[in-house]
Amino acid sequence: MRKIILFVVVLLALVVALGVGGSWFISRSAGSFDDEQKALVELAEKAGATSLGVTRTDDGGLRFKGYLEGHPFNLAVPWRWNKQVVLWANGYSPPGAWNNLGVAANPLDRDALGVVRTPYARGFAVGESAYDKSGVAVESAIENTYRLKQFTDRLGSTRAYMFGGSMGGNITMGLIEKYPHEFAGAIAACGVVGDWPRQIGWMIDIRAAYNYFTRGTAYELPGDKSIARSALASFPSGPLNYVAPATLAVQILRVRAPMLALFAVAKAHPGGAEDRIIDNIVAVAGTVKDPAAFAVPLATLALGQDDINATFGGPIYDNSAKTYSSPHLSEAENAALNRDIERVHADPAAVAKANAWYKPTGRFDAKLISIYNAVDPLVPTDVHEPMLREAIAQAGNGANFVDRQVPQKEDPHVLGSDTPGLAHCGFTSEQIVAAVNDVIGWVETGNKPNP
Q1: Entry pTM
Q2: 443: closest CA among 16, 85, 107, 26?
């Protein structure tokens, strides 16, 4: 259960964080604020921060926690601030999850990957703004993060970077394109850098195929079978929000159980009925044969389809005219598949909103590194990265882009279980530290790093 709750806190989010070498570490003994820090606190209040709490970090810097126009934010400013800032956009969390800020009270601690710790140790301020909701929250994330960027400008920041992972990669793209002159560098890690209709559609195809091929078996998903809606009930909010993590844990257990059982039996009986079910789903939906590539997308939609529809104002995927097929089926079986698989229709207004928040255009001034795994079980590399490359090529903006693929990585605990599978945002600390240092070096020297 402890694994499940830990997973829920970061479910489908890339709260990527990495380690850093000690050569840039700046510290001093703890004590009272010096005159420069007192002036910075006063400036923060004048710059619009309310309900402001300021504490010391272990290195002698300051951690600001407060509100900007009613929206929570965290900002950590090192003792010897270089007047630059790195803003972080976290990933997706399921509806009902606590929408907490992820930058730790001490940015030099609890950051296994180093996306925050690396720039902070080099003298950069690091911060993030809370989103207005859990689930898909790109619109408020872009607005709230840009508000924080303006706040850091008023504190004296002279250069800003934008880093984000998973859904945060999409938020990063939105920020550097909507405000092209405001960010010097950016990292989109394992990001939704194509578009939301394609991302949601890819997951819906998996759900539709899974429902079709497991119908009447012990491996059916629980709850509502319609691919147009969430499978399971929404989670407590308001006064009962404190029980949301436990509720999410229970729902995730329910969703993952039949899928992991399907893979367990298929592994025990290669070529058997369960193995054939998996092979057909892989072929029809265009995914890979891996427990995470089934469980993570299906759990996302089982718990979040209603939120996706509400966020964009309607369905954003249309498979009404799509032809599905599997090489493992006969011609008659493929005909039956296309006759009986569930269909959904997109709302053009919802698609337009999804593309406004946000489909990348390839037009930005920031130095951008897109880093991603060769295979990702939630944000499919072969869907998103070609779309981003094409947009950048069409915009003639290749000089500002580094396309960086790294090997896939294993997650030993798919959805908090003891089943291993592919990792979403499966990076090592060395890979992330290199990306952080490379984009900073690129901005500072003009020397474009290698892919």
Answers
A1: 0.91
A2: 85
Residue 407 CA to residue 405 CA, distance in Å, equals: 7
Block residue for tokens 């947009």: 391
- Do 448 and 399 meet the contact criterion of CB atoms below 8 Å apart? yes
Domain boundary among 324, 353, 382: 353
DSSP-assigned letters across all residues of 88-116: EE---B-TTS-----S-SSTTSS-SB-TT
Other Cβ atoms within 10 Å of 167 Cβ, number? 28
Measured in degrees and rounded to the nearest 5, phi and psi for residue 329 equal: -110, 155
Q: Are 169 and 14 in contact (CB under 8 A)?
A: yes
Provide the percentage of residues in the chain whose pLDDT is more than 70: 89
Residues of the domain holding 56 = 12-194+360-445
Question: Residue 41 falls within a domain, yes or no?
Answer: yes
Q: What is the DSSP string of 134-187?
A: SBS-HHHHHHHHHHHHHHHHHHT--EEEEEEETHHHHHHHHHHHHSTTT-SEEE
- Render pLDDT for 130-170 as a digit per residue (tens, 0 to 9): 999 999 999 999 999 999 999 999 999 999 999 999 999 99
Residue with tokens 């956009």, as numbered in its chain: 89
Last residue of a domain, one of 289, 324, 353: 353
